[in-house]
Design a protein that fits this description.
The chain is mainly alpha-helical and 314 residues long. Helix 3 runs parallel beside helix 5, helix 7 runs parallel beside helix 9 and helix 9 runs antiparallel to helix 10. It starts with 13 loop residues before the first helix and ends with a helix. 45% of the residues are buried.
Length: 314
């Protein structure tokens, strides 16, 4: 006699749905994670964890507005959970809503004053504003709460680097790499710091490893281009910087750096085009404008009137 097969319970077991959603998130299956979490919240609308997992999945899938809505719903249900506030801040920052992101991180700290991810992310916001000393304070607070927090060591290293404290930056970034040895972005930032210390061979070795780990890292290729330019290897510099620009065409640094290479090779027409493109991406990019003015002074086809007009714009 044939026996019937058991039917898997999917729509009536909220806990199982959430477990499947979390497992899907862990393996990078964002669509499945979102679908399972949505089913869980349909089944249990007051499940804060369900809304939080849904928010995480929607964020990773690029649906930022929906992720914000789901994150706020999780907080409505469990307002004293620091992690929920901090995760909402991450989504808000990704959406460019910096003031709201900062408020979310501060709400997380109100729930838990030593919640390291919120302290770290306040550092990121201060760094975005160019407030590197304030960023340093936040990163150090995060590390006081969690000395093994790689992201905070990474952020601290960048903040120190931007303050031209290269020796301290090297130490912080080395600690970040020790904790996350396969992170090409940390390697690339450490290489930039080593360039500031004139340790070109060490920087080159790190960048080669960073590119090997992640061949599509614009940061690694861009920093490699900057290093090769410092070393006077113009062909290699142009190749690496062009690769960075192809990978991240809206990043003004790579566009401007390629302009510098063209300028140094006396290809003033190409350089002018690239500097103007960098300024179109970031109109207040003073370095690109200064390089453009330098380039125009040596451009054989630019009149004194055109050069003067550009100086007036600067």
């Amino acid at each position: 006699m044939q026996q019937s097969q058991p039917v898997e319970k999917r729509s009536t077991d909220g806990e199982a749905l959430l477990q499947r959603a979390m497992a899907a998130l862990d393996r990078g299956d964002i669509a499945t994670a979102a679908a399972e979490a949505q089913l869980a919240t349909d089944l249990a609308p007051d499940s804060a964890l369900g809304w939080e997992i849904l928010s995480l999945a929607l964020h990773r899938g690029g649906a930022l507005d929906q992720a914000i809505t789901a994150g706020r719903r999780a907080i409505e249900i469990k307002p004293d959970t620091a992690e929920f506030h901090a995760n909402l801040g991450v989504v808000l920052r990704a959406a460019g809503r910096m003031a709201e992101a900062e408020a979310a991180y501060r709400a997380a700290l109100k729930a838990d004053p030593k919640f390291a991810p919120a302290l770290n992310n306040l550092g990121n916001i201060a760094r975005d504003k160019g407030q590197y000393a304030e960023a340093e304070t936040h990163y150090r607070s995060a590390l006081s709460a969690n000395p093994s927090y790689a992201e905070a060591w990474h952020g601290l290293g960048i903040a120190l680097q931007r303050q031209d404290r290269y020796g301290e930056a090297e130490q912080a970034l080395a600690k970040a790499i020790a904790l996350r040895p396969a992170r090409s972005d940390i390697m690339s930032d450490l290489a930039a710091t080593l360039m500031g210390l004139q340790k070109f061979n060490e920087a080159a070795a790190l960048l080669a490893k960073a590119v090997e780990i992640d061949p599509n890292s614009a940061l690694a290729h861009g920093n490699l281009g900057a290093l090769k330019l410092r070393m006077g290897h113009f062909v290699a510099a142009e190749q690496a910087t062009a690769r960075a620009m192809a990978l991240s065409p809206h990043e003004q640094r790579w566009v401007s750096n390629l302009g510098v290479i063209c300028k140094d090779l006396s290809r003033y027409g190409d350089a002018e085009f690239l500097f103007r493109r960098a300024l179109a991406l970031k109109p207040d990019y003073a370095l690109a404008h200064a390089n453009l003015l330098f380039c125009l002074n040596y451009h054989p086809d630019r009149s004194a009137e055109e050069i003067f007009a550009e100086y007036q714009r600067f």
